[in-house]
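Summary: Need help interpreting a holo structure output

Steps to reproduce:
1. Submit the protein chain below together with the SMILES for magnesium ion.
2. Request a joint structure prediction with the ligand placed.
3. Inspect the structure token block that comes back.

Expected: a single structure record containing both the chain and the bound molecule.
Actual: see attached output.

Input attached:
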Amino acid sequence: MKPAALIAIMGGTGCGKSTFINTIVGKDVTDVGHGLESQTAEVKEYEFLIPNGIPVTLADTPGFNDYNESGGKSDLVILREIGGYLKAKYDKKRKFSGILYLHNIADPKVGGSSQRNIAMFKKLCGPDPLKNVVVVTTFWDEVNMTQGVKNEAELKTKDKFFKELVDGKCRFARFGKYSPEKSPKGPEFPPPISIVSDLLALNPVFVEMQRELAEGKTVEKTSAGVVLYKELQELNRQQEKDISDLNQKIAELKSINTSDKVAREALEDECIALKAQLEELVTKQRNLDQEVHSDGSELVSAIPPPRREREVLAKQRELDLDNIRHIELQHELELLKTQHAKEILQSQLQIRSLLDGNSHDAYQRSQLERLCEDLTATVSDLSQSLIKLRETKEQDVLARTAELAQECAQLRATVTTHSKTLAHLELQLKLSQEAQEKMASELSGKSDNHTSSSTPSPDGKGGADPASKDEKSTKNTGPDYVYYRLYTRLGAFESNHPLYKNDRFIGRIPTKSFSPPHTVASIKLSLCRLEGLSEPDKALLFTPLSSPAPKADSARLSLEGPSGPGLSEQDPIALVVESEMRTEEVAAQLEKLPKRSDDTKVHYGKSCRRLLLIWCTHQLNSGKGDEKAKTSFDKSDISLGRINTLFITPPHTAGSLKACIAKVEGLRVTQGHALYKDKDILMSDTDVITFQDKTYPGSDEGNPVALATDSKFTKRAQLTSTYTFPPADYKVLFSPTWLSTNKDEIVHTDGVIVTDGYLVINSKGEKGFVHKAKITLIDR
Ligand SMILES: Nc1nc2c(ncn2[C@@H]2O[C@H](COP(=O)(O)OP(=O)(O)OP(=O)(O)O)[C@@H](O)[C@H]2O)c(=O)[nH]1
Ligand SMILES: [Mg+2]
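--- attached output ---
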């Protein structure tokens, strides 16, 4: 049976030999390495069938490595291993169909060990079998393609690499750990199996080393062995040189005597590092020596080793080591000395500082004492200055006091003079006032004789005496003044600028106090300001008093003319304010209303004579149970009272008359009160009354208006619908039995149903029936 084709796989350690084999075989037949050491320790064969059924044996060889960097087998040992395998194959007349040399293309620089490996491999192959040699560059998946191609070109063209083999027709192929679909295409990247199968077409060959070994040469004597030995010798020399350089450097460093602590420490560190390097080199040197001489005579005789020289060198090294140890000891001693010197110095410094400290304290004490003395001196100076200052001040104060006393005396004299002048002036003023009053009273008397209507009637009945001659009136009429009366909804109230001392209900203010333009709005504003009233915008202005509606804000009043609204006492402006405070005040001002007829000091104004307003209370209720009126004036009928129409708030309606009477009588107008005229005719609050007419409700003492409280209407009720009743067409039929209603209005009733309805009195004082379906009783 024909033996399987034999293919050797060689190369440096870790270049991917086992990986390549596993790829070709299609399974992990051999271990793949993970470290620097050669994973494959000895030559191992793997047999498999290529696709056309031809058996192939792949020989996985241990990789050459740099023994300086690994603790594993040295290249020499590996070469012996490979040599033994080649010799064995030769003995069996087994030729190689192919020899693959794998090289890591991603290796950045092809260093010493790689070059040595290549050199050995070239010698191992020899000049003949170069067609059967394939240099397989690996790790293409890890290198940039451009870089890889560049590296590959270098490998092919440089003598120290594979130029010799390329010249002898060896081939190159690329390999990488690609997934099948990502593997680059092209002849440079042949499938690994084809690299092998292509070789099978060639004639198998012996390699040079097989032949050499067959001639009886030892491995070390083969061409590859000699290359390796020369390399090792060179390495040995290099290392010895390195050792001596290092020793020299260490000695130099030790000799540098520096007091700089940092620099010294740096030098020490460098020495230690160099010593470690040296020891490593020495170890390697020993290993190398052992490797080279392990096999004994043949290698030594082939290239005579400089044993004597080495012995001398070894001795020299020992001496060097002793020398180093000696220098180290000396150095340590110096360090100790320095340390001690430092400690002594520190102790001395401490002693010095302690001594200095004491002297410092003494110095400080003396300084403090001096400071104290200085301070004492300063204090005594200051107290002396203070005493002097006090003396000076006292003198100043005395002088100033004398000056002031003098000034006071002068002032007193001036005051006395002024007092005298003042007394004189007062006397003159008094005299002039008396003369003025006398003149005024004379003028007044004349005026009353001519215009009796301009003088208030004291009893309100008219025809009485004119104003008393004794009255201290400040009356002063003329177009230069504006006259006015003030009202709340309950009636008149007093002015802060009264025309008369004894009738403060008519006010008077100089026209110039009203800033133009004299619109109703600006007059209202000025009046409210001068009278101290709030909310002028809510006030209403009436002129004349009897006008049924207030003047519009934009209307103008002529205050400059000789006569006109507000320019005389007889035609005053009426200002009706809403102020709640004033309303309350007016409600409480009973005593300020016109007093009884026998009060001769009261001036009612001329209109008083034209009014006689009489009412009686409870007239409807009892018919005889009348009460005494608060303004009673007729002893024969005490229920009769009277009020001045001037006190009724405009516009003059039954409602404002009712409010005024109620106020005078101290009643609160409620829906339970109603005003009647002509005995039993109910007046509605909106009924207009014209007091200028000859007769008006209550103008006749014999036919007074009556304010009645009806005790029947005690229950409150709420109207539930709005209805105007009676409709205009049926007025004749129904009036006044049924009452018009406003939804939600509160009315008063006796609570008795008569003819399907309640008798009610509404807020206007209107009385009538409301259907029971249109009312809800609140009080039951
Ligand atoms: N990315 C990449 N990794 C590779 C390639 N070839 C080998 N390796 C990796 O390199 C390491 C060494 O591979 P091995 O196949 O053990 O190398 P070896 O030449 O057999 O090494 P020795 O044990 O010294 O003989 C392993 O981790 C492999 O997976 C390659 O082409 N590309
Ligand atoms: Mg391997």
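--- end attachment ---

Reviewer comment: The longest helix spans residues 307-450. Residues 17-18, 33, 39-40, 60 surround magnesium ion (ligand 2) (CB under 6 Å).
Status: needs-info
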